[in-house]
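Changelog-adjacent note: as of this version, every example in the card shows the full chain rather than a window. The one below runs 152 residues end to end.
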Amino acid sequence: MVSGGSHELSIVFVSIFYSLAVLFILFLLRVLLRSEWAAVAVLLLTLTAWDALRSDSLLLGGILSALGWGILLFLLVRFGLLATAVAVLFNVVFVLFPVTAQLSAWYSGIGLTGLALLLGLTVYAFHTSLGGQPLFGSPWLRIDRIPGKYSK
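Full-length structure tokens:
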């Protein structure tokens, strides 16, 4: 980990590294098994078994681990590396920044900071994804351009 004031940057590096590691293992399994879905199934079973065996409750740990890893692998296969890295980043931020509904708690400020960081990142990504287009419809659908009684 990066130390000394650049903790936020290390969170980004961890999420990118984690996503690349899962993608690399999936790639190796895909080459060995010659089937994408077989590779996903083997990786899902392996990661689920690894997490379930380390948990206190084997059944509950296995179910929750399979759900988490299944969502992550679905994101990786269907939407790609960027979506997976952002999902891992959001997960890491939610784990590291304690979010509470009790705003009088001494640690509520850092939790709200994490939420504000994620909200800002989401709004920026949404604005960037519009590519300069208006939010609701296109500019040529204005009411003054409708022929008939609204036209001048």
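Structural remarks: The mean pLDDT is 87.
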